[in-house]
Design brief:
This protein is of the alpha/beta class. Helices cover 31% and strands 25% of the residues. The chain contains nine helices and 15 strands. The structure holds flavin-adenine dinucleotide (FAD). Flavin-adenine dinucleotide (FAD) is lined by residues 204-206, 230-233, 244-249, 261-263, 265, 267-268, 281-284, 287, 300-301.
Length: 319
């Protein structure tokens, strides 16, 4: 089944790329049919004409609703036992292939350069190691759900001269509420320009958890400091990525920088080396930060920072 999502506005591009892939990237005997999703009745004929296979099945659905498309495809996969689903390249195709494979217990590969259909398995080639090598993968669990590589957009072929519509279904009644209707945008909790800040606290992996980072952030706020984090903290989503300090993030030059639970690797140090004073809190006196800091507290980071915030708060109250 070749899936052409005509509800997204990029149907022509998808159809040409899929057509090119079917003719030059797909090896092995396959009887393919296009499952064409569309939302506007007026678009229907035009979309059928650009379909990448002669046989076309039409499903009318709500526009840009990947959840509904996934439900339609899940039914097709379960009821009709198709072995292979091919999706266009790009984020939409990757998402749809992955959703379908997860729902029906199949296997997925995204960004395929070519496919070889065999009886019990599908052999796929795709770029690996930042496109320096081509990897060969075998998918076994069916259905095989594959999105094609975006480069197929550049190797398009002409549309087929004739098409046959095998079936027409209408799924618009199943639309219901838009899947993203209840989504709320939440403002980032941390704020402040790290490059400009005067007092900075940097939390590292030694904080131990998101809760540990939250406690360090609360202590930093109490002291009037801005909050930065090391890369493992940002990558674990314990803090927003815009808090990252170091070569991949911000370079700060505060009057005081307290580094809590970070080893002080060179990539982080670049982001704090312009600080007038660096204080480290780390139980390991062999950590690189211990050699680069003006003062080191060899103890638990969260506990020390909370105690320090308490002292600072009391000092301000009595001042
Ligand atoms: C190309 C590239 C770019 C990079 N860019 C960045 C960047 O911009 N920023 C960045 O941070 N990293 C960057 N890195 C990663 C960097 O090399 C380090 O891996 C990273 O800085 C380590 O983060 P960390 O210190 O939090 O963790 P770790 O190195 O794991 O250190 C954790 C520290 O916590 C201490 N600790 C343990 N328990 C406690 C406790 N209870 N209390 C206090 N301390 C404790 C440990 O002793 C240890 O020193 C980059 C790497 C590469 C290859």
């Amino acid at each position: 089944v070749v899936v052409l999502d005509g509800t997204t506005g990029s149907a022509t591009k998808q159809a040409r790329a899929l057509g090119g892939f079917l003719r030059h990237g797909l090896i092995g005997e396959t009887a393919a049919v296009t499952l064409l999703l569309y939302d506007e009745a007026a678009d229907r004929e035009r979309l059928v004409e650009i379909a990448p296979t002669c046989d076309v099945r039409l499903v009318r659905t709500a526009p840009r609703r990947s959840d509904l498309a996934a439900s339609v495809l899940t039914r097709v996969a379960r009821n009709e036992g198709a072995a292979l689903f091919i999706f266009a390249g790009g984020p939409g195709g990757c998402e749809a292939a992955t959703r379908l494979a997860c729902r029906v217990g199949g296997s997925v590969l995204t960004d395929a350069l070519s496919l070889e259909v065999e009886t019990e398995r599908l052999v796929c080639r795709t770029h690996v190691y930042s496109a320096h090598l081509v990897g060969r993968f075998e998918l076994s669990a069916r259905p095989w759900c594959v999105s094609i590589d975006a480069s197929w957009h550049d190797r398009a072929v002409d549309p087929l001269p004739e098409h046959r519509v095998l079936s027409v279904a209408d799924e618009t009644d199943a639309a219901g509420a838009a899947s993203f209707e209840d989504v709320q945008l939440v403002a980032p909790t941390a704020a402040g320009d790290l490059a400009e800040c005067r007092f900075l606290v940097v939390a590292g992996r030694g904080a131990g958890s998101r809760e540990g980072v939250d406690r360090i952030a609360a202590a930093a706020r109490r002291m009037g400091a801005d909050m930065g984090v090391s890369r493992p903290v940002a990558m674990s989503a314990w803090a927003p990525i815009d808090r990252l300090v170091g070569v991949s993030g911000a370079r700060a030059a505060p009057a005081l920088c307290i580094v809590v639970g970070a080893s002080g690797a060179p990539a982080l140090h670049w982001g704090i080396e312009r600080a007038a004073r660096i204080v480290a809190v780390n139980p390991d006196d062999q950590a690189p930060i211990a050699g680069n800091a003006d003062a080191v507290v060899l103890d638990d980071g969260v506990a020390v920072l909370e105690a320090l915030a308490e002292i600072v708060a009391r000092h301000w109250e009595s001042a």
